[in-house]
Fold each of these.
Amino acid sequence: MNAPADRTFSIDWLVASDGVRLRRGHWRPAAPRGRVLLLQGLSEFLEKYGEVAAGLTARGFEVWSFDWRGQGHSPADSGARTDVFERHLADLDGLFEALPPGQPPLLLAHSMGAHLALRHLARRPHAVARALLCAPMIGIRTGRWSQRLARALARLMIRLGLGERQLPGRRNYTALHIPFAVNPLTSDRVRYERLRGLILNDPDLTFGRVDWYWLAAAFDSLDRLHARGVAQSITTPMTLLLAGQDQVVDSRAAARFAALLPHARVLWVAGARHELLQEAPAIQATVWAALDRVLADPE
C-alpha cells in the first residue's frame, strides 16, 4: 500500500465489531469549521476521492471516509455472502462511533454508500445534520432482464452452488478493461484516465467482481429499504442528486422513493452519468453548487 503523499491526508485502521481492520482516511483543512462523512460506492477506494476531499477541505471541512470491507485495501469479507450488506451496516455504525466528539457530521454519499446511508438513517435519523446523496442505489438497472427475472436468476444460481460466478458483462469490470468510449460512469476522459492511473499504480485497489451472491444481497437490502414506513422514518434533511443518463442505478426509482421522504429535495443533473462526483466540469459545477447549499444551509 502506498503511503499518502499529502500531509493533510492520513490513513489508519478502524477495527470492526468482528475484528476486521478497515482502512480509514482523514483529510484535514487548515482551519476546520465542520465535518463531512464521505461514503463510497461499490468498487471504490479512498484515493479515488482525493479531488472531492480537496474541494471540501478548501471549504474548511475535515473529511472522514473508509474503504468498505473487500474494497480498496480493506480485507476481503469472509462471512456469509448473503449478509454482506448487514455487515456493511455494522461497519458504518462503527465508523460513526469512532468519530471524534463533536456535532453530528454532514454526509456525502455515492451509490451503494448512499443506499447504506439511507438504511442507517432509517434507524438513526439524527446521526447526521443533513446529507447529499449522489446517484443513490435505490433501484438497480438490470439491463435486458426484468427485475423479477434478475432476482429469480440470483436465487437459482446460489441454489446451484454457482453464487460466486460473476454476472454476465461484469468480468473484469474496471476502468482498466472498459474503454472510455463505452464506460457507463463518466463523460470526463481526464478523470477516467486518472482512475486508470490509480489502479495501474496500485493494482490491489481494483474491484471487478460483482457476482450472484452480491446481487441477491443487494436485492434483499433494497427490499428492507422499501419496506412499509421506512422512507417516512428518515427525517434527516437531504438532497438527492439523480443522474439523467445513469445506466447503473434506477434514477426514477430513487425519485419515487424521495417523494416519500419527509425532508428531501431532488435535483436531476441532465447529461450526467452515474459517477456525479467524477463527471465533466460543467456537470461538476451543478454538483458542487448543490453540495455548497447542503454545507451552508440547514434548511
Amino acid sequence: MRREADAMMTNAQATPDAGGTDCFLSLRGVTKRFGGLHALDDVSLDIRRGEVLGLLGDNGAGKTTLVKIIAGVYQPTSGEILCNGMVERITSPDRAHHLGIETVFQDLALVPNLAVADNFFIGREMTYDIVPGLIRILRKRKMETDAAETLKQLDIHIPSLRVNVDSLSGGQRQAIAIARAMRWKANLVILDEPTAALSVPEQNKVLELARKLARQGVAVIYITHNMNDVMAVTDRIALLYRGRLAGELLTRQTNQNEIVSMIMSGKPPASAQRA
C-alpha cells in the first residue's frame, strides 16, 4: 500500500534521512497566517507509516488548518513539508492525491443518490471511448468489481454495491469513505471525527478499520474529541494549543486525565513521556 516519492518531480529537493525511514510526511516549522491571525505557529511533526496518530486540541487549536495544509487546500506561510524525505510543495488537493494523501471528512463527500460503486469513483470514473474525444461510456462492471475487491480486502460487508448510499447505515457510509481512500492507494489517510453520531458497534468497526489501515503500512491521522477513541486506536498523540504544538505523547504511557489537562492548558503533564 506504500508508494515511493517520484524522484524526478521538479519541485522536490533531496533531504537525507529527514524524519527517519518510517516517516511518510514531516512538517518542519510550518506556520500559517490569515492576516494578523496565527492559525499555526512553527509546527514540526512527523507522520509515520503503520501508525495511528491522534491529532487533538480544543476548537480553534489549529487542527483543521493543519489538515488542510497537508491536504493541499491551504499553503503554509512559512516552513516546509517533506514527503519520503524530499521537500514537497503540496500546492493543491490533486497534488495531495498524487502523493497518496486522502482525507475522510465528517461529511464523507459521498453522493447519497448514487450507488456504492459509483461513489468510489467520483471524479475518477473508469470509462472507455466510443468516439475518441467525444463520447465515453462508464465501465460500470469494472467499477463494481474494483470496489468489491477493495471492500473485501478491508473485510467490509455491504449487501449490494448497486444500492444508493443513502439507504445504508452511518457506519456503512463511513466504511465506504475509508475504503474509497484505500482504493486510491493511500499512503496517508486523515480521518476527521470518524465515529461521530455512530452507534457503539459501528464505532468499533471504524476503529478496527483505522487499525487495519495502519497494519497495512498506511499512516493514519485520527482527529477526534472522543477520549475513548483516542485510547483505543491511537499509537501516538499530537496536541495543538492555540496554533502551536503543545507536545507529543505515546498513548500507552498516558491516560485520559493527562490528555484532557494538556488540551486545556497547553502544557504536558510532568509525568508524561514525550513520543
Amino acid sequence: MIAVGDWLVFVGAALLMVLTPGPNMIYLVSRSICQGRAGGFISLLGVVAGFLVHMFAAAAGLAALLLAIPLAYELLKYAGAAYLLWLAWQALRPGARSPFDPQPLSPDSPLRLFFMGFLTNLLNPKIAVFYLSILPQFIDTARGSVFAQGLLLGATQIAVSFVVNLLIVLFAAGISRWFARRPLWLGVQRYVMGFVLAGLAVRLAAEQRRT
C-alpha cells in the first residue's frame, strides 16, 4: 500500500520529530526524574492516548480533504515546511533550553499522571502539525485507501515515538547527569538537529504532489 522507500523516509521523519525537544519530551523527562520511572511510564501511556486521538482525527479528515480539495495538499505542504524551519530555528537560536534540564514537579496520582500526559500531547502543536502537514506528504492516492494509509503511517509514528520516549523515561536521570557534565554535547546535538530539520523542510517544500 505504501512504498517501502517512502515508509522508511517517514520512519526517519518520525524519529527526527520525537528527538526534537518539545512539550512531550520536557514533561516526560521532568516527571521521570521527579517521580521515578513508574511515574514517567504512566505519563507516557497518556501521551500515547493523545497520539491515538491525533491519528484517527487526521486519518479521517485527510481522507476527505486531500481527495476533495487538491489545493489543500499544497497549503499543508508549505505549512509543514515552515513549521520545520521554525523548529530548526528553535534548536539553533542562542539560549535554547535543553529538555534534560528538568523542571521541579510535585508528585501526582497515577490517574493525574495519565491525564496530564494525555493533555500535554493532545495540545502539543508539534504533533498536530506533524499529522496535518507532514504525514500527508507520504500518502499516495494511487496506492489505495487514504484512510488506511493514514492509519498505517500514524501507527508507525506512534510506535517510533513510544520506543524513543520509553528509553527517555528509563534513562532520563542518567542522560540528564551526562549532559550536565558535558555541555559541549548539548550544543552539538542542537546544531545537528537544527540542520537536519532544515534539510527536511527543504525536501518537504520541493516534494511534488502524488496522484
